Amino acid sequence: MAEISIRNVAKQFGDFTALHSVDLTVADREFMVLLGASGCGKTTLLRIIAGLETPSQGEVWIGGRRVDHLPPRQRGIAMVFQNYAVFPHLTVFENIAFGLRMQKLPQAEIDRRVTRTAELMHIGQLLKRYSGQLSGGQRQRVAVARALAMEPDVILMDEPLSNLDALLRLEMRAELKGVLAESKTTTIYVTHDQVEAMSLADRIAVMDKGLIVQAERPIEVYRNPAARFVGSFIGNPPMNFLPARKADNGSWRVAGITFKGPKAEREEIAFAIRPEDLSHAESGLPAEVRVVEPLGPHVLVTCDVEGHLFRAVLESDIVLSRGDIVKLAPTPDRIRWFDPETEQSLQVH
Amino acid sequence: MQQRTLPYLLLLPATLFLCVFFIYPFLLVAWQAVSQDGALTLEHFRTMAGHWKFSTAFWNTMLLALAVVPVQLALALFMAALVTRMGAGRDVILYIWTIPLGISDLAAGIIWLAIFEQTGFLNSILSSLGVIDQPVTWLGYQDKATIFLAVVLAELWRATAIVLVILVAGMGLIPKEYYEAAEVFGAGPWKRFVRITLPLLRPSIQTALILRTILAFEVFAVVAALGGTNLPVLMGETYQWQFALQDRHVAAAYALVILAISIAFTLVFLRTLRVPKEAQV
C-alpha cells in the first residue's frame, strides 16, 4: 500500500513562489501525471515528494507515513531522472544493482532482480557495457530498470521521455505503460507533453503557476476543463474561445447566434468549443477561412470569427479555399463556458 | 598550403623555447652524468652511490613523500568536499586556504623555523603556559625525528592547497544529478563520497598526485631551512655536490636519479588511476 498524500505544500525560492499551497492525493497503484508548461512547478512538486527539495510548508505522506523530514533514501521511492543519471563509471549491471547493493541484498537476489528487470526492459544483452557505449534510448531503459529493480512502492519520473526522438518516445511510452501496470507501483510522472499525459495517466493533475488547476481522469480533463487554461493547454489544436454577450437570462449571443448557457451575473462570458466538435452546416458561427490544412483523416481549417482566431477539424472531403465564408455548427452538449475574470468553468443548470 | 603550415609556424616559438631552455640543458646534464673528459663512464654514479649520504638521502626523500603526499590527498579531499558544499563564502574560504601557495618554499621553511627554533613561537607559548621551564631544542642535529615531523608539517601547510585547487575544480565538474540519483537509491553521505565522488574524481586525483609527488621528490628549501644538512634529501645532495663539493658530474647523476624516480611514479599513477575509455564521462 502506497497512497501518496500531499497536504498544503508550498515552496518559495527567495522571492519566487514555485508552489502555492498544493493538495493532492494519489491512490495506491495509481498512475498520476503532473502536466504543465515549463516553470509551472511540476518538477518542484516531484522533487519535494522525492525529498530532493524541502517544502517551505506542508506535509508529504507516503503509505500512511509522514516523510517530509526524511532523506530520499528512507522514503521507499525510486526515481527516473530527466537526463537519466546513469552512472558513467559503472556497468549497466552495476547501475541497475546500485540501489540493491545499498540495501545490502545477497548477491543471488541482486543477480535475480537485475537479470529480471534487464530482460523486462530488453537490455539483457547490454549488462557489461558502460553508459558511454549506450544510445539515449538504451540509457533510458537502464534508468527505468534501475528504478524497477528496487521493487519500490512508488516510482517518480521526471520527464523521462523528453530527451528521446519522436519515434522512440512513442515506442517507449507504450512499453512504460505496460511495464508499470504490471509492477503494481504508485507512479507520479512529470511531463509537459499532453499526448504523453493523456495516453499514460489514470489521472492528470494539470498545473499552472504553482497551482493544481484540475486533477481528473484524462477524458474528464479533456471534455470538461475546470478552467480556461486547461482547455487551451490540452488538445491539439486547443479549444476555441469566443466572447459571449448576455442576451437574456441564461442565453448568450456569440457571433450573432444565440446559445443556451449558464445563468451568470455577467455582461460577457467566454464561449468555448473544441475544434473537432464543430461541423459544416446550413446555419452556425460565420467563419472566414484563412488556412486549409488537409491532414489525411480530416482537414484542419483555421478561420476568423469576428476577429478571433478559430479552428475547426472537419470531414476530409470538404472543399474550401481561403476567403470562403463557412457556417460552423457546434455540437450542443460539447459547448463549455468560462468566467472571464476567474477563468473558471461555468456550469449550465 | 599556408593553412597547413600555419599551425607549425605558431608552434615554433614555444618549441624553440623548450629546446633551448629545457631539452638542451637536460642533454648537457645527462651527458655530464655519464661522461668524463669526453668518454662514457659510470664512475659518477658509482661515486654517488658509494657516498655514505646517498642511501640516507634517498630514503629520507622517499619517506617524506610517503608521509606527506597521502596525508595531503586525504586532507585536500576533505577540504574540497567541504568547499564544494558551501554556498556563500565559498570563494573567501578557498582564497584563504590557498594563501600558502603564494609563498615561496624557502619563505615557508623560514616561517616554520620561526615556530620551531629555540627562541621560536612554540617555545614561547609552551613556557608562558608553564609546560616547560627552559627552551627545548626541537631541531638539534640529533633530533632527526622532530626535524622530519617539522618538515612534514611545513610541507602539509605549504602545498596541500595545490591538490585542493585541482580537486575542487574536478568536483565542480561532477553533475549534481548523479548525487541525487545515488541519494534516491539509498546512498548516505559517506557512500555517495566513496561510490560517486571518488570514482568520478579519478582523473583529477591522478593529475594532483602526479604533480604533488614530483614536487615532493624535489623537496629542498623547506628541508634546508628547518634541518640544514641534518636531514639529507636527494635535492639537497645535488646542491651540495654542485656547489660545496664542486663536482658537477655527481650532481648531474643525482639529478638523473630524481628524474628517474619521478618518471617511475608518474607511470605508476597513470597506470593505476587510468579510467577505461568506455567508462569516461
Explain how this protein is built.
The complex is a heterodimer of chains A (349) and B (281). Chain A is of the alpha+beta class and 349 residues long. Chain A has two domains: 4-232, 3-Layer(aba) Sandwich (Rossmann fold); 239-346, OB fold (Dihydrolipoamide Acetyltransferase, E2P) (Beta Barrel), CATH 2.40.50.140. In chain A, 24% of the residues lie in helices and 37% in strands. In chain A, the strands form four sheets. Chain A has a six-stranded mixed sheet with strand order 6-7-8-3-9-10, sandwiched between helices. In chain A, strands 13-12-11-14-19-20 form a six-stranded antiparallel sheet. A four-stranded antiparallel sheet of chain A has the order 2-1-4-5, with helices on one face. The longest helix of chain A is centred in the middle third of the chain and has 18 residues, at 166-183. Chain A starts with a strand and ends with a strand. Chain B has 281 residues and is mostly helical. Chain B has two domains: 1-41, no CATH class; 53-106 and 154-279, MetI-like (MetI-like fold), CATH 1.10.3720.10. Chain B contains 13 helices and two strands; from the N terminus they run αββαααααααααααα. In chain B, a hairpin with a 2-residue loop joins β1 and β2 (39-40). In chain B, α1 (2-34) packs across α13 (248-272). The model of chain B has no long low-confidence stretch (mean pLDDT 90). Chain A binds chain B through residues 50-52, 71-73, 77-79, 81, 83, 85, 87-90, 98-99, 102-103, 129-130, 132-133, 146, 150, and chain B through 175, 177-178, 180-188, 191, 195-196, 199-200, 202, 275-276, 278-281.
